[in-house]
């Protein structure tokens, strides 16, 4: 019951949030976009932060999940479970499509990770970068996936509840993984891989597991993203730039910090909208400025500033619950 209580509370809170957000389409869109980026950042933090590897192809796994879940949903679009209301039936098929996208991304993570995670540092980064580019080229040249024009007609099943429930699950998993024997082994690999091997840790096996878990949630994030877009295209949504945005979120928040990944993902996702509102407030014409073009150098500038002033990131390797625990401890 103690383990189920956080899930029950999350369901109630997110259900209320879903009801309260129904009147604002703009808020719903931003909430879903922020949630997807939080899932991507926290899942990548399992590899880059907790395990100490360096992957820069996370958008490739997101693309795998997005397209596989999209194809699954389109194949089941005309079906309905007769014993359930239509809305409930659609959500069941939605969960199935998300699972299909996540499993497919996890399988690709296993296939990429098994041979490449014997590599370290820059070599691993190059392999993951190559994987992301291969996925984009494959999608652009596959007519059944829409090719370069994109895959239209997506059923828009994603809700604020579904996105943030996945956020809750991935954060809960990351937290419990951190305090589990598996998490201790991953942290040992991050600190000193040679010493971890000397202590009997199967480093390659643990790194592959982390890679698969991270890829699975990236695929689920891709499925969530695909189902609130009317069309998905192999463009900026799954490009190298997207991968680097997620890397910036992880590094800026603090490598190894789940809390940092969440905070950085929220701030950096809302930054372009904040800039647009600021331009309008100052009387400028935001339409004459490319917010997306300004976002990229601002991301780079923020990363440089953070690395110069706080190289360990905003939270370092600490978590919000660590500070809460310290406050509860009696002073000595």
Keywords summarizing the entry:
single chain; 332 residues; two-stranded antiparallel sheet; 13 helices; 2 strands
Write the layout of secondary structure elements.
Blueprint: H1 5-20, H2 25-51, H3 58-76, H4 86-116, H5 122-140, E1 151-152, H6 160-178, H7 181-191, H8 193-198, H9 203-226, E2 231-232, H10 240-253, H11 258-281, H12 291-309, H13 320-328
Antiparallel strand pairs: 1-2
Helix pairs in contact: 1-6, 2-6, 2-9, 2-10, 2-11, 3-4, 3-5, 3-9, 4-9, 6-9, 7-9, 10-11, 10-12, 11-12
What does this structure look like?
With 332 residues, this protein is mainly α. It has a domain at 5-235. The chain is 72% helix and 1% strand. The chain is built from 13 helices and 2 strands; from the N terminus they run αααααβααααβαααα. Helix 1 (5-20) packs antiparallel against helix 6, helix 3 (58-76) packs parallel to helix 5 (122-140) and helix 3 (58-76) packs across helix 9 (203-226). The two termini are 34 Å apart. The model has no long low-confidence stretch (mean pLDDT 84).
Tell me what portion of residues adopts beta-strand conformation.
Answer: under 5%
Poorly predicted ranges = none
User: What is the number of E strands?
Assistant: 2
State the helix count.
13
Mean pLDDT: 84
The succession of helices and strands, N to C, reads: HHHHHEHHHHEHHHH
Report the end-to-end length measured between terminal Cα atoms: 34 Å
Q: Give the oligomeric state of the chains in this entry, treating copies of one chain as homo and distinct chains as hetero.
A: single chain
Shape: globular
* Largest sheet strand order: 1-2
Structural class per helix/strand content? mainly alpha
| Helix content, binned percent | over 70%
Gyration radius from CA atoms, angstroms? 20 Å
Biggest beta-sheet profile: 2 strands, antiparallel
